[in-house]
Amino acid sequence: MKWIFPCILLIGFSSFANKHEEHRHHGAHVHGAATLEMAFDKNRGTIEFETPAMGILGFEYKKLKEADKKKLKSVTDDFEKNFSKMISFDQSLQCQFEKRGIDYVLESEGHAEFSVVYSVVCAKSLTGSQIQFDFSKYSDLKKISVTALVDSLQKSMELKNGKGQIELK
Ligand SMILES: [Zn+2]
After folding, report:
1. In terms of Cα–Cα distance, which of 126, 53, 114 is closest to 88?
2. Tell me, what DSSP letter sits at residue 109?
3. What are phi and psi of 108, to 5 degrees?
4. Which of 7, 26, 91, 133 has its CA 20 to 30 A from that of 97?
5. Distance separating alpha carbons of residues 40 and 46, to the nearest angstrom
6. Contacting residues for 12 by C-beta, under 8 A, at least 6 apart
7. What are the tens digits of pLDDT across the range 45-57?
């Protein structure tokens, strides 16, 4: 009966992999999950962070109450001021972040996404460097899937407790 165990493991893994694919390619709406995608061509790139609003704001509806508006403003301000601390590149690369958009988007009745897009320009190519991630203050984000595409190198990982790092080599 020893063969049953690995077999179950395999089924478990493949259904997880399918969900993961679905999330990445069709933007499945899972509360507490987020995607962080970065694509760089040498020293220039774009970073996109997206999550169902529930995991970061605690609500997903159209008619915002006063408290919700305050919360949205404080989270938006945080992503405006501190995004380069949540995603930090090697100091020597001298990367500059430029905000393209921070949005609360109502998807359908009762569901909303929070999305953040930045352009980044660094003094040097990112190849060979390291990126540190820290979203730990948003503890309701249980799963943050990171994909980094730098020139021909692609790295993917899932942050643990909102933290992690990627080596671009
Ligand atoms: Zn939702």
Report:
1. 126
2. T
3. -155, 175
4. 26
5. 7
6. none
7. 999 999 999 999 9
What separation in Å is there between the alpha carbon of 91 and the centre of ligand 1? 37
Length of the chain counted residue by residue:
169
Record the tokens describing residue 119, joined without a space.
């352009």
Going from the Cα of 59 to the center of ligand 1, the distance in angstroms, rounded, reads 8
Report the distance separating Cα 65 and Cα 112, nearest Å: 15
Q: Which residues pair with 45 in a beta bridge?
A: 40, 120
Chain segment 53-93, per-residue pLDDT in tens: 999 999 999 999 999 999 999 999 999 999 999 999 999 99
Tokens at 34, concatenated:
């987020």
- The H-assigned helical ranges of 27-132 are 54-57, 66-86
- Continuous segment of H or E residues that includes residue 154: strand 153-159
**3-state class of 122 per DSSP?**
coil
Residues 6+ apart with CB under 8 A from 31: 52, 54, 55
| Closest C-alpha to 111, from 47, 26, 19, 28 | 28
Which structure tokens are listed for 140?
Answer: 């309701």
Ligand 1 mean position, distance from CA 84 (Å)? 27
